[in-house]
Specification:
This protein has 426 residues and is an alpha/beta fold. The chain has 13 helices and 14 strands.
Length: 426
């Protein structure tokens, strides 16, 4: 029994310069764990709702109400509970909040507390978090999805597609995987600089997308992989379409190209890209409410592509089970703050894995230096990790933590590579 003795909360700042919430959970003996709430920009409709103060200060993003919730009701509910019992603490948080979407106490207050409890339990066990979570079971270092160009709402809609990423499936180790991505990132920068001056980076550290079309970004990325010297499928492309962001009244509107497509036409646009570029994974290819579109895309491409539900599944185990029964997608993005607790995130992973789905632990576009998701991806043996680019410290904090875990594993370190893909693609 490691009783929770104190719960503290403070306001800190995220990578977009917005307030967020950090929670410390102190247990018997003075050990403590810390959790920080990240924040999405392209959020699914059914996500856990962050509690923000509204008003005009910091554009309404301040978190004084969420801080008060942690210091008041949350502290009262969990002080005295055993930090080792994550599930019952998370159930307590859900019950005290009492809403379906955690809007009363705030998804931000709840997830930061849930993470802090987990870290406190690992501290009590005297283990690094990943090893505490693995509990003796085998682990793999994740296949990373790393952003080269940002887009969508993370880049003022300069291009429509949100993430142009690469997956170094052919690497032998995690160390080598990051080297390959660094090569591609540098090559992409050189190609872009030939076109005009580089104009900074998007929210997750990928280059600001100075392109005339979405296809030009894909062509440039394909060329960057080639000029970096990677062929034969060693480095593949992954796209987060985040299609809900440019779906309006039954149409997909590419603002950059001033083109509009109905669902059938949009799927043909994607099919054309899939046939032309070395794409291995695609996320939220259609509007988050479009079950038929997800099923159609899975039927057509599910035997050669990873098809990830992010906004479509919102890290919900129930939604994953329904999607599996319907054949809508073959992988899930796992964002702890999207569902709101560690336990619910793990339940979603377990449900996805049971049917041979890919499981991708993911950061948000608004992040901090906190690196819990790196340990989650290894400790839960999720197989994949998506964090953003290989620049900006809130991103590299996560990749660098995986390098440290690789070193701790020593000779036992195994890189997931293709083994992390959905069954049938491994
Ligand atoms: P978000 O973006 O954190 O802004 O939701 C990440 C993603 O869509 O995967
Ligand atoms: Zn996404």
């Amino acid at each position: 029994m490691r009783k929770i003795e104190d719960v503290r909360a403070r306001r800190i700042w995220d990578s977009r310069g917005r307030p967020t919430i950090e929670v410390d959970v102190v247990i018997q003996g003075g050990l403590q764990g810390r959790g920080v709430a990240p924040a999405g920009a392209s959020r699914g409709e059914a996500e856990a709702i962050d509690l923000r103060d509204g008003g005009s200060r910091f554009a309404g993003y301040d978190v004084q109400n969420a801080l008060a919730a942690v210091r008041g009701e949350i502290a009262e509910a969990i002080i005295g509970l055993d930090a080792i019992d994550q599930r019952s603490i998370d159930e307590t948080l859900i019950a005290v909040d009492g809403t379906a979407n955690k809007s009363r106490l705030g998804g931000n207050a709840i997830v930061a507390t849930s993470m802090a409890v987990l870290r406190a339990a690992a501290a009590a066990a005297g283990e690094p978090l990943w090893r505490y979570l693995a509990d003796g079971k085998p682990v793999r270092l994740p296949l990373p999805e790393i952003q080269i160009f940002g887009g969508g709402v993370h880049a003022a809609r300069r291009v429509d597609i949100q993430d142009f990423l690469v997956m170094p499936v052919g690497a032998e180790t995690f160390t080598k995987a990051l080297e390959m991505v660094a090569d591609v990132y540098a090559a992409a920068g050189e190609l872009m600089a030939r076109k005009g001056p580089l104009t900074g980076v998007a929210d997750e550290g990928g280059y600001w997308p100075n392109f005339d079309s979405n296809e030009e970004a894909l062509t440039t990325l394909t060329r960057a992989i080639e000029t970096a010297g990677y062929g034969n499928g060693e480095v593949m492309i992954s796209l987060d379409i985040a299609a809900s962001q440019f779906y309006e009244h039954g149409h997909y509107k590419l603002g950059l190209e001033d083109r509009s497509f109905d669902t059938g036409e949009w799927i043909e646009v994607l099919a054309n890209w899939i046939g032309t570029f070395p794409i291995l994974s695609i996320e939220d290819p259609v509007n988050e409410r479009d079950r038929d579109g997800m099923i159609a895309i899975t039927q057509r491409f599910g035997n050669k592509l990873q098809i990830i539900g992010d906004d479509y599944l919102v890290t919900s185990a129930g939604r994953v089970r329904v999607a599996q029964a319907e054949g809508a997608g073959n992988a899930v993005l796992l964002k702890p703050n999207q569902v709101g607790t560690i336990t619910e995130t793990l339940d979603t992973l377990v449900a996805a894995r049971a049917a041979g789905w890919g499981t991708v632990v993911s950061a948000r576009s608004g992040e901090t230096e906190d690196d819990i998701i790196s340990d989650l991806s290894v400790g839960w043996n999720a197989g994949q990790l998506k964090v953003g680019s290989i620049t900006r410290s809130e991103r590299t904090a996560k990749w660098n933590q995986v390098l440290r875990i690789e070193e701790m594993l020593g000779g036992k370190a195994e890189y997931a590579g293709r083994s992390a893909l959905p069954k049938g693609l491994r």
